[in-house]
Amino acid sequence: MNETKHTGDLNFITIEEAAEMEKGTRVTFVPGMQAMYAEALKNICYVKKIPLIRVLHPQMGFDKKTGRDRQAKLYELTSQTSLPTMFHNKERPRNVWIEQLALAEKIGSKDSPSLIPENFKLRAEMFGLCAIILAEDGLVWNMRILIDSPLGAKYGYSEEASNVAPKKIAEVLTLIDNCLKEQEMLGSPYLLGDSLSAADIYWATMSMTVLPAPPEIMPRTQQNQGMLMYFKSNAKLTLIKDALSKRIELHQQYILKTYCETPAVLGGDPL
How far is Cα 146 from Cα 154, in angstroms, rounded to an integer? Predict the structure, then answer.
């Protein structure tokens, strides 16, 4: 049965429909929410000029009518339940950011910017920066264990880990700020080299978790109010606040406004 859902100005198809399709690039989202890895992938695909079919990411828990696990089909397809899942044509689903980036680089428009540097030294630097932003024990990982929550528990929350997390986040911020400072001296607005890379897109997007973007970049919806309040509280933590710089803020807004779709298109229910 077709259960395509219309939310806001967007249509979202079901995970079952996405799995049955043989053509097109499909990515799972939560309507009205800027789930950060999904938002980052959306920005990568926007830069690469890849049209996306939006898929409803199945909610956690059990359906009240049927008693079935709502994420059972997603797990059957991908052996995991995190978002986003990326489908392309008949290829296997991708769930890890580094594989999603590689696929986007491969299928993107020929006239889109290359987000993975040809130069291997720059490529190594870029993937290193991406890792401290996206990978285990990086910026987003430590942001998620700041508080005791279901998501925090999934990422290894403990009182000890939570206490150390602000220091680790501040270290990432300081490293990024130093990169931008060095690049500024070379006349480049980018994190490395003299052109846009995936590191710029990932950082500008994920930095919103500790440096909330204004509504003209990230619209407010009924669904994302709580998340935005959490990001705002992160920015007030002393170690994080002290590490945030005007340079980081300017880079975030430059990248998002210049290269990404702003205001972000989320669906859901606008405030």
Answer: 12
**Do 27 and 157 lie in a common domain?**
no
CA nearest 224: which of 189, 190, 267, 255? 267
The residues, any chain, with a CB within 8 Å of residue 52's CB and separated by 6 or more, are: 25, 26, 27, 42, 45
**Residue 198 contacts residue 126 (beta carbons within 8 Å):** yes
107, 137, 155: which is the final residue of a domain?
107
203 token code pair: 């950082």
Sign (positive or negative) of CA dihedral 234, 235, 237, 241: positive
Structurally, the chain folds into a number of domains equal to 2
190-234 residue pLDDT tens: 999 999 999 999 999 999 999 999 999 999 999 999 999 999 999
Other CB atoms within 10 Å distance of the CB of residue 81: 17
- Does the residue 267 lie in any domain? no
Span 17-65, pLDDT tens digits: 999 999 999 999 999 999 999 999 999 999 999 999 999 999 888 888 8
| 185, pLDDT greater than 50 | yes
The answer, yes or no, to whether residue 6 has pLDDT greater than 70, is no
DSSP 205-255: HHGGGTSPPPTTTS--BTTTHHHHHHHHHHHTSHHHHHH--HHHHHHHHHH
Amino acid identity for residue 164 in this structure = V
Whether the CB-CB separation of 140 and 36 falls below 8 Å is answered with yes
Per-residue model confidence as pLDDT tens digits over 125-135: 999 999 999 99
